[in-house]
Amino acid sequence: MDLISKYNIPVPRYTSYPTVPNWKNDLNIERWNDLVKETFTLTNNTEGISLYIHLPFCESLCTYCACNTRITVNHKVEEPYIDSVLKEWSLYLSLFGEKPKIKEIHLGGGTPTFFSAQNLHKLIKGILEQAEVCSTYDFSFEAHPSNTTQLHLQTLYDLGFKRVSFGIQDFDIKVQETINRYQTFEEVKTVVEQARKIGYVSVNFDLVYGLPFQTTSSLNETLVKALSLKPERIAFYSYAHVPWLKPGQRKYTEKDLPKDDEKRQLYETGRSLFLNNEYIEIGMDHFSIKSDDLFLSAQNGTLHRNFMGYTPNHTSLLIGLGVSAISDSWTGFSQNIKTVEEYQASLNENKLPIFKGHVLSSEDLNLRKHILNLMCYGKTTITKGDENDPTFNRGLKRLSIMQKDDLVKISDQTIEVCENGKMFLRNICSCFDDYYWKERSESKLFSTSI
Known about the structure:
Layout: H1 3-7, H2 29-43, E1 49-55, E2 57-58, E3 70-71, H3 78-96, E4 101-109, H4 117-128, E5 132-143, H5 150-158, E6 163-169, H6 173-179, H7 185-198, E7 202-209, H8 216-228, E8 233-238, H9 260-276, E9 280-282, E10 286-288, H10 293-300, E11 304-306, E12 309-311, E13 318-321, E14 326-328, E15 332-336, H11 340-348, E16 354-359, H12 362-377, E17 379-381, H13 390-404, E18 408-410, E19 414-417, H14 425-430, H15 434-439
Parallel strand pairs: 1-4, 1-13, 2-3, 4-5, 5-6, 6-7, 7-8
Antiparallel strand pairs: 8-10, 9-10, 11-12, 14-15, 15-16, 17-19, 18-19
């Protein structure tokens, strides 16, 4: 059987393990508070903590997008929302008992640059006033090239941000019209040049393959244009078609999307271009130049993957602030309420706005370790403790089929992803995910792997 036909099935992206749909929801606020305090006490002075801040507002709906967003042109929502995020931060500060040392901040969305530079300054200043910043830190934000001003860039740079990620997706006008996402090459070129002139050391481009009406020729043209601007990093994502979760994707149908082999060719087109232009493949979907922190962290063993994606720093405690944001205490996960009104109402009652979570068992923690190793380094080590883990052994049995397909190599001590297996990394990790195998036929939860 053709490998694409065999393995192009719905599987998680593994920004966490267990994945959100499989959380047991066995976490109340008191238990979450205890998990946060325990991890903070153990790691604040050694690792520091990470912050993800979700800024959900967008002025228009990008129909390809599967993120939690709120569409509005009313910018009066900015200040009340920032006040709520700062209130949430104050509740966490009261848990910590001492000043947190911040290693990472990432502003995601939505569209963070929906907010004015003045309001972003208020937000970050409010966060940092009651914290210390680690000697080596990584502050980054996502930006729409069409609404990011020089004032946005300068304001955030002055607050410590040195990395920016621009959502491009595709330059082809037919694709842009279909997904309702517009930015010209000239706009991107201008904002990249402004960022570099100000002093940003790392520019990332988000690009997507598998979008409606995308062809090998049109994607190649997009990528050549993008590469001419020499971004330090590229995130080359597979389009996730989940119209049952995101009705905006019903603007087009599966007939408008590249089919399995066509989508594989789109991926190979991009990957070849990046490698031929001296980018190094990092984990899954990511490429960077050799001088960028993402590559250096892969070399020195600090590369990590969490709800912010790939990051060059490992921190055990990730606090998610804002609507739908997810936090990770390493021993547990929690997710915030998904609507702005309910989120703000909870904070007005001085309650953390958590609505679901999961406490990791010892088995969860062991499998998470292996999945993280495979996701970050394409390799994991088998230990003596794994021999007594029935879930791990079931995973090995599932992997044996992939070994026959030359996707992985399995020895007594290691599991290693082969070159042919890189495109099927999600499938490989899923072998260890018992939750996935128990639930996979019951409902539509995930996008296909390719």
